[in-house]
Write a structure and sequence with these properties.
It contains 16 helices and 17 strands. It has about 475 residues and is α/β, with parallel strands linked by helices. The structure holds 6-O-phosphono-beta-D-galactopyranose. It holds the Pfam family Glyco_hydro_1.
């Protein structure tokens, strides 16, 4: 069934009573207070200091939505829009300012308060440990290229479980681990702005290892919740059924999806990827003991972030043998004619992708318990949709969510093990180098009025969805 057909179907989309409804967020994008109460710099604070002009309108990570100060007000708003669960991340550079060693007691108290406030409002905390925000002290030791940093991360994770594990029962080791690999080591949109495939492979491998070590630490402590990872899965669609296009899309899938999905869920890296790395001479430095850790510490639960598909075709021109090695040596991207776009973000909107991911997890990944941990629509200039009552009329966001939820519903009916839907994000926040360009929230944050929060039409709508368990 194609997108339009499903969209036209009216009727009742009913979800299970215990479905997780809510939203997701991250510390560096929402907390603000970047150099307050003992927090040290992470790579974003540092990079902004070095190159403020790389950030939209020159706005840096110190000016995010101020959740650090306003979390009680914000959690009350979450309650108002019907959340029964909410994902946030802990900032490593806030909790352990030197990267290893002493806990910052003020930071521990802050996260403890946030957790208590959520629980008091019947909102289950989902806690993620790393959202692109390497502490600068750790980056100076080599970041994810360094095995020492992997061990420091495991200790940081273990400290979080000890501090908060009695109340937090859903943990995530990383958000979108492929993104810092792409951004920081291949395509220059994260610090340290390296373009080097060999280093990228080491970073990716060490990030996976760090996740598996954190899961091992969680289980060694005898914690009784669930632990997983959050991956941005971009289903790879070939231009045609021509075998060369299909092979190109499989390779892209191995690089960008299966590189973390397979080891996280199955405990092993995909052969397709390993074969390429071995044949081309780009295997990372690894040990058999580490591979054993990866094999034995797979996830309980998978978060799926879905924004856009990847369209791929066979490579049309051979790459010069001396050109730097990049994954796109094996495929070209392809713009599907007539595709629907989110013009603000420049991303294709393809709702059926969310269904294809869920069915793939059902059929090829043991139907691992999962949930949609991010999906959302960034829009520029939303202030112009504010009506006389001050409410942003974001009907486009409601349509976007419904169009995706219909496909989630279909997957659920066909046996996919999907347990919830979280929007990116709760309130407008700071989006890395795009800063405040695109707004994503259920709640607007008015930067002109001291960060004033107002629930958007989509927030009011979501509340009804949760009350009715559907729409
Ligand atoms: C995901 C990230 C989020 C968030 C979102 C929206 O990749 O996990 O941190 O930012 O994308 O993308 P962007 O902010 O780049 O528009």
């Amino acid at each position: 069934m194609e997108v339009t057909e499903l969209k036209q179907q009216q009727g009742n989309y009913q979800f299970p009573d215990n479905f997780w409804w809510g939203s997701s967020s991250s510390a560096p994008q929402m907390e603000g207070a970047a150099d307050v109460d003992g927090k040290t710099q992470n790579i974003w604070d540092y990079w902004y200091e070095q190159e403020p002009n790389r950030f939209h309108n020159g706005i840096g990570p110190a000016d995010t939505s101020g959740f650090y100060y306003r979390y009680k007000e914000d959690i009350a708003l979450m309650k108002q829009v019907g959340h029964n669960s909410f994902r946030f991340s802990i900032s490593w550079s806030r909790l352990i300012p030197e990267g290893t060693g002493a806990i910052n007691e003020k930071a521990a108290a802050f996260y403890q308060d946030v957790i208590d406030e959520l629980l008091d409002n019947d909102i289950e905390p989902f806690v993620n440990l790393f959202h692109f925000d390497m502490p600068m002290v750790m980056q100076e030791k080599g970041g994810w290229e360094s095995r020492e940093v992997v061990d420091a991360y495991r200790d940081y994770a273990a400290a979080c479980f000890r501090l908060f594990g009695d109340k937090v029962k859903k943990w995530f080791t990383h958000n979108e681990p492929i993104v810092p690999v792409e951004g920081g080591y291949l395509y220059d949109f994260h610090y340290p702005n390296v373009v080097d495939f060999r280093r990228a492979v080491q970073v990716g491998y060490h990030t996976q290892l760090s996740s598996s070590l954190a899961i091992q630490a969680y289980r060694e402590q005898g914690q009784d919740g669930e632990i997983g990872i959050i991956l941005n899965l971009t289903p790879s669609y070939p231009r045609s059924s021509d075998p060369a296009d299909v092979e190109a899309s499989r390779i892209a899938d191995a690089f960008f999806n299966r590189s973390f999905l397979d080891p996280s869920v199955k405990g092993e890296f995909p052969h397709k990827l390993v074969d390429i790395l071995r044949n081309e001479g780009y295997m990372p430095v690894y040990t058999e003991d580490d591979l054993k850790v990866i094999r034995e510490n797979t996830v309980d639960l998978l978060g799926v972030n879905y924004y856009q598909p990847r369209r791929v075709k066979a490579k049309e021109h051979t790459v010069h043998p001396d050109a730097p090695f990049m994954p796109d040596r094996f495929f070209d991207s392809y713009e599907m004619p007539g595709r629907k776009m989110n013009v603000h973000r420049g991303w294709e909107i393809y709702e059926k992708g969310i269904y294809d991911i869920l069915v793939n997890l059902r059929d090829n990944y043991g139907n691992i318990p999962c949930f949609i941990s991010e999906n959302g629509m960034g829009v520029e200039g939303e202030e112009k949709f504010r009506d006389a009552e001050g409410i942003i009329q974001d009907d486009y966001r409601i349509d976007f969510i419904k169009d995706h939820l219909r496909w989630v519903h279909k997957a659920l009916n066909e046996g996919a093990n999907v347990k919830g839907y979280h929007l990116w994000t709760f309130m407008d926040n700071w989006s890395w180098t795009n800063a405040y360009k695109n707004r994503y929230g259920f709640v607007s944050v008015n930067l002109e009025k001291d960060g004033e929060r107002t629930i958007k039409k989509s927030g009011e709508w979501m509340k009804q969805v949760v009350q009715r368990h559907g729409f």
